[in-house]
Amino acid sequence: MDSVPRLTSVLTLLFSGLWHLGLTATNYNCDDPLASLLSPMAFSSSSDLTGIHSPAQLNWRVGTGGWSPADSNAQQWLQMDLGNRVEITAVATQGRYGSSDWVTSYSLMFSDTGRNWKQYKQEDSIWTFAGNMNADSVVHHKLLHSVRARFVRFVPLEWNPSGKIGMRVEVYGCSYKSDVADFDGRSSLLYRFNQKLMSTLKDVISLKFKSMQGDGVLFHGEGQRGDHITLELQKGRLALHLSLDDSKARLSNSLPSATLGSLLDDQHWHSVLIERVGKQVNFTVDKHTQHFRTKGETDALDIDYELSFGGIPVPGKPGTFLKKNFHGCIENLYYNGVNIIDLAKRRKHQIYTVGNVTFSCSEPQIVPITFVNSSGSYLLLPGTPQIDGLSVSFQFRTWNKDGLLLSTELSEGSGTLLLSLEGGILRLVIQKMTERVAEILTGSNLNDGLWHSVSINARRNRITLTLDNEAAPPAPDSTWVQIYSGNSYYFGGCPDNLTDSQCLNPIKAFQGCMRLIFIDNQPKDLISVQQGSLGNFSDLHIDLCSIKDRCLPNYCEHGGSCSQSWTTFYCNCSDTSYAGATCHNSIYEQSCEVYRHQGNTAGFFYIDSDGSGPLGPLHVYCNITEDKIWTSVQHNNPELTRVRGANSENPYAMALDYGGSMEQLEAVIDGSEHCEQEVAYHCRRSRLLNTPDGTPFTWWIGRSNERHPYWGGSPPGVQQCECGLDESCLDIRHFCNCDADKDEWTNDTGFLSFKDHLPVTQIVITDTDRSNSEAAWRIGPLRCYGDRRFWNAVSFYTEASYLHFPTFHAEFSADISFFFKTTALSGVFLENLGIKDFIRLEISSPSEITFAIDVGNGPVELVVQSPSLLNDNQWHYVRAERNLKETSLQVDNLPRSTRETSEEGHFRLQLNSQLFVGGTSSRQKGFLGCIRSLHLNGQKLDLEERAKVTSGVRPGCPGHCSSYGSICHNGGKCVEKHSGYLCDCTNSPYEGPFCKKEVSAVFEAGTSVTYMFQEPYPVTKNVSLSSSAIYTDSAPSKESITFSFVTAQAPSLLLFVNSSSQDFLAVLLCKNGSLQVRYQLSKEESHIFTIDAENFANRRMHHLKINREGRELTIQMDQQLRLSYNFSPEVEFKVIRSLTLGKVTENLGLDTEVAKANALGFVGCMTSVQYNHIAPLKAALRHATVAPVTVHGTLTESSCGFMVDSDVNAVTTVHSSSDPFGKTDEREPLTNAVRSDSAVIGGVIAVVIFIIFCIIGIMTRFLYQHKQSHRTNQMKEKEYPENLDSSFRNEIDLQNTVSECKREYFI
């Protein structure tokens, strides 16, 4: 590439930097008084007490001693003409000399022409300056941002209530020089390079502009190879097109690289700065900057021949332009340090002028007005009455969808004309009395903030409505009466004191701006309106348009879309995963631990690790077990993957994608106590780490993009595998099994658990290209447990103690959440102070939480009153939030306290002190108690770490079960942990994290589960031996039996409790489906209780509860009390020896009825079986090796829910895994996963043989069933079927059933 253009670009950037330094230097000492030497004629005002213009310089004591208006009201102002545009840096005020007249607050406005004023703003709000407290003292204010203007206007807002408005003023600053060019919309300046091609690696372009047009090209340059740069106005916004690409995409077809600004067609100066270094670009309009990376293969911008400013001329066609030209003024236009306008003024040869470009800014004398109030603003202008016809035109801009634009009563009984915005559509209606004569609708989305022109013309019985120079279609009914103009035209709204006929307003008043009002083809002088000599008005700002784009910048967070009205903005949070007034709050929880705490069980969830922070939600699997909550993040390659043909010159590499950014994964890892990933390398003549001393053949890449040459089971920095640490490798000379380089399959499998290196992002393999060399790898999901945020707690035990953290920076949005528990009456949870601003959260009384905040407009307090005490030493949740829309406070599940934020005034929360937690800077009102899980804007504060080095504060806080014990159900016991709690389900028939998961099983014919009450046995490592031991030293004084069942078989024996050879308790279904509870208490005495409310063998779930307290017996069936009975005092209950579910296999001498029910035992599904503190079915399924339980026959664990109302015989067991990713035992040799060709052939043969045997078995079973069915049909009396399948397929005959339980009684 040519070096001369490169050198030129470097020099221009150097000159640009020197120019900016020089410009900054001119601002030093810019504090000269500018008003003291002005003549009295330079001052003007809305009115004057003397009737003439009074000088009002600071310290003026002559005459009236300053300015006072004729009337002291909100419409008064004092202005001065400084002669030329100057730079204004400060102002000062006094009251009127020798009087009680002074102003206590005021605002400032500036203008270049004395028209179209602009209000001074700070923090993007109209700024109010504090005024005087007496007549003589001087109050100075330095402007935060200097202003360049010729005219300054002081607008009193408040004044001494015992006097009147009175002012003496001064303005400070210095002279301001600039180069200005005026473009008339048909002209441009061409800057021609000294060579054919200008190639730049860096560019700096700066300018200021003002315009009344919303569209137009400010500058453009392009190269023949496709590079281009264009800056243009589009609907009042600036669009920058920039490409370093060699494609031939046309400008008209491409989308802008960036769009910034809004309402830039307001005829005020706007600054633009474009800085480019290679592909990185900073684009700044006024105070807003957008950073982006442009497209292209190179870093250079190649522009051919010239840059054009003000338009894009078409080569060879003078006066013709490719797009609409810029119409307005440009000031201080610099391209890489070159002052383009200065060159043009001096007629240098580099500049070629197209059309008429002048070097002073022509200012159109247009007076805009603002309708401020949606209920009381209006403008009354007179017309010429009784003219045959009507003509009205004006321009308007607004953000509101609805508002009255014009209302006028027509003459000669023509009716009333109404023009309004309704839903963003322009609606013209002419009506007489209640009859609508005509209606025209046109346009859409006219509340877009842009200027729109409207014209109404009525002539010769026809009316035409024109919008933006396009005539609307006429109304269908053209039989209109003659229209005669009225004498009063009401714009924007109606006065309160008028009758309906004079001014109609069916909707709310208009809020927005208007200009260029013509009535009967005559322009209306709005300055005369302001001076009171024409028409009338209320709640108007005349000579300025105070429209504001509340969506710039966009305060809707996390990609929320912004819309607005005149007074506020709204956020649409759809599809953002966030909610709230500004899309600040994540709709997802921060961890699997929080989901578990809410009562959720295992499943897929989204977690948002930083809450309201910038990181988005991540899709994870929460494996919520009884003792741990695992967070599992799967990647895109979970299967075992074969690798061949890789070497150091041609390595195999696979990158892993976890469905989220590295920042999201790091947040999950850093917030966990432990993380791991299982890595497996199966090998045959493929070395892994090349131990003991060689260069690794396989390595993996971690989070920091670093290579790690260690494998699962080994710590970082140790080039070994797990077998090397255990000294169990196949070859003791190597530290990995695969490094032995054997010709048969082996593997190295283990867990990587050093959190700072996780997750695995890539694996690289280089040793599979030798003869008979092969490998396969699998990397498991990232798995973590232990939430370091949710249970992070501290205890404050002295009132003077506190924790301090760095300043809480939350200018626009702040959310604070935590849990607390206390017995104190009051105390401050946290406090952060600024110079004036502050934020504080406290428990102000035992039942009251207070959130106080001040952003500079005075303190705002929100209080939540609890109906119950909050100092009950239980955990309570607090969440406080402040954003630009509202301030809110939430305590537990109580109603949220909310207050809307003021749209005007200060809105930045500016804090500068340390953040105090548990106390205040004054060491007063300290908090006594515990604070847990403190988050500020989604970020966790590590309270425990800070407490370790702070006196009066202890890490941790016990007592979680006192608040959360109720989350453990069905007899589960809450067990306290340092970080939270767990539910011990040892004595519950249920299991799972909350003891809510049913333990159920399918019983087949002959299945028996017998529990012997003999030796103690441990069932869990989390409880002591004695708590889980069962002793048989005495008979139980009470019995509690609960279980649920589903069956279609009757009779059936459900449960049998044996005390001795004669005494027992049996629960059975009779042949007619009734349920029977039989107590055999001695050889002679038996008690039989029958519940025949329905046929319980009806394939539906039934719940039975038998409870005996001493001698009082109650039986509940399906949650209804069915029986209550008291045993006689002589009854003696024996010691329990065994409990059997299903068929009793021992020879216990059962009576006839029980023996008949025991023929098959129980066929169906049983769940949640409990006898006192024993769960026999759970013991058989979970602790069969240690519990005194014996299982005969087939017992299959399964859910009972899918058997309800289904063919029980057709049930097949569905096995589920806690690992959603189908994890198998990867530690098996690869021969179980990657098979050789011979193994595949052998497998096919085995499968064929197996299928043949299955067919033979099925045919044999079918023939046997057919024979049994034939025998059964020939039997004269019914017997219990011996074949289980046929019994399930036949309906139970209940019509002629004779009870076989003759020794029973019904209660």
Question: What is the topology?
Answer:
Layout: H1 3-26, E1 32-33, E2 43-45, E3 78-94, E4 103-111, E5 118-119, E6 121-122, E7 125-126, E8 129-130, E9 139-159, E10 168-175, E11 180-184, E12 188-200, E13 202-211, E14 216-222, E15 228-234, E16 237-244, E17 258-260, E18 270-277, E19 280-285, E20 288-293, E21 295-296, E22 301-309, E23 327-335, E24 338-339, H2 340-345, E25 351-354, E26 357-358, E27 369-371, E28 378-382, E29 390-397, E30 403-409, E31 416-422, E32 425-432, E33 435-442, E34 452-459, E35 462-467, E36 470-471, E37 488-491, E38 512-519, E39 522-523, H3 526-530, E40 536-538, E41 540-542, E42 561-564, E43 569-572, E44 578-579, E45 585-586, H4 592-597, E46 603-607, E47 618-624, E48 629-633, E49 641-643, E50 652-655, H5 662-670, E51 672-684, E52 698-701, E53 707-708, H6 722-726, E54 746-752, E55 762-765, E56 774-779, E57 782-787, E58 793-796, E59 803-805, E60 814-821, E61 827-833, E62 838-845, E63 848-854, E64 860-865, E65 876-882, E66 886-891, E67 897-900, E68 915-917, E69 929-936, E70 939-940, H7 943-947, E71 953-955, H8 960-964, E72 973-977, ...
Membrane topology: Single-pass type I membrane protein
Disulfide bonds: 930-957
Domain Laminin G: 180-361, 368-545, 792-957, 1014-1200
